[in-house]
What does this fold into?
Amino acid sequence: MESTIQGRVYKFGDNVNSDIIIPGRYLIYIDRERLAQHAFEVLGEGFPAKLREFQILVAGRNFGCGSAREQAATAIQGLGIQAVVACSFARTFYRNAINDGLPIFECPELYPDVEEGDSLRIDLAASKIHLADKQYAFPQLPDSVKKILELGGLANYLKTQLAGT
Amino acid sequence: MGFTIAEKILAAKSGRTSVRPGEIVDAYPDLVMSHTATWRSVSVMQKVGATKLYDPDRLAVVLDHIAPAKTEKNATDQQVSRNFARSNGINKFYDVDAGIAHLVLMEAGHVAPGDLIVGTDSHCTIYGSLGALGTGIGYTEVASVWITGKLWMKVPDTFKIILNGKLPPGVYSKDLMLHLIGSLGADGCGYKAVEFHGDATSGLSISERMTMTNLAMEMGVKCAFVPPDAKTEEYLYGRMEASKCYQPVSADADAVYEKELPVNLGALGPMVACPHEVENTKPIQEVQGTRIDQAFLGSCANAKYEDLEVAARILKGRRVHPNVRLIITPGSKQILLEASNTGVFQTLLEAGGMFTNPGCGACAGDGGIMADGEVCLSTANRNFIGRMGSSKAEIYLSSPATLAASAIKGVISDPREFF
Ligand code: SF4
It folds into this structure.
């Protein structure tokens, strides 16, 4: 994981559920690219392609609610999204994102100030998000969780654990 | 200061004497459920180069979504899961004929009060109907628990919901849950545990409790509990594996709750969740008359025997409206068997319903897909856009009674006139 994440924002509302992120009929795939082709497609034609122009998703409350499907996090990564910043996450999405190596941040203060196309810089070491000349703090992840994210996800983490024993 | 059920279970499963909300523990689940997603966890195991399971007896594998296989890809994936179960000596393996994992595992006696259960499905919360802590995780994490036996868990705060009074005729725990989800919102209990208390709780059947702890997921809970009582004992009697002793876990009288919420069941009426979010609930009066093309009596929320029986009572001697297709997907083979023994199966068929094989069925986008502009009334737990086929179709959610009344009339209808 890079120490800074930078990019343009696409903004969603509240309660974006995992059926919207990736419909159930595509759960037969686990490959990032394939999933990304259908990510958010229920929101309208051309949506997956459009989202590829952005690097950071910003969302309201309860992002990723509903199904525990891990492919929701995988599909977002397949779109080339580097991070998701939301007011809050549903717990299954939160875990899946970390386990898939997708950086996520809870920062409700940012939400009202940011608009589609804005440029954000997320400074991981300082736990700060920069939007133009404003700064927003987000809570640090617990160390055990950070470790999984740093290694790019739970599978890599397991691999290193198994190699060590 | 005492402890809640979630705190007690998480302490016991992480070898601690006590834990408090916010703490992170390494917990060892008693059961790891994986359903149709099993092959994905197998692929993770291969990817990380692991060959040994922490304890094969803690695994349960049930092939429920899209069962039997619809495509060659499904068949191959199921073959991977089946081979994995066989070669690792997984005794709790249930093939495509068994039904929905949650219901199958409870029926088979694999779920006991006080257990910690994780699985590849968000509605694992349903295990709280028997006093177990059930919660969903992804397939990579399931593989991790298979290998290491444990996972990190944050101890949640608990909300106490106090149920008083009695549900009026024609009103069910599904209506209670739609009422709660509508008033608290899709994240109204985000990251929280929920405990149902109050005089009315002991009067609710295990089937009603399953609906409650299942639907609780739709307000964002991590887990939900109905504290075990005489009804729980009765359900478990003869089902539990002989070797398994369990300690029912109850909350202390002085447990600390973040919030307490009283609900008078007597004041509730039938509720309907409107497209495309479960929290978008309305009293039946505001939606009755809405045309429906399909009625789906299915899912882990409401396709238990009692649910089929309620629908059969209303449909007996009546006919499904000619413009409606009534699809009944029993939650498990056991349920289908019971329905066929008691005549419920015949009643529903004679009324014009059709049966599909037990499993998730249309709830997982299997048989019962909707076309553009069509409307489905469903007893499932989710009405998200595109979940049952076209993203231009609409899904409404209700109790089995409301579903049966509506199937007869061809429009969403109040079931109370049939009582
Ligand atoms: S019946 Fe529906 S909600 Fe229940 S496990 Fe199957 S797909 Fe999920």
Remarks:
- The mean pLDDT of chain B is 96.
- The interface with chain A takes residues 24, 37, 40, 43-44, 47-50, 71, 73-74, 77, 120-122, 135-141, 143-144, 147-148, 152, 186-187, 190-191, 220, 222, 277, 279, 364-365, 382, 384-387, 391 of chain B (CB under 8 Å).
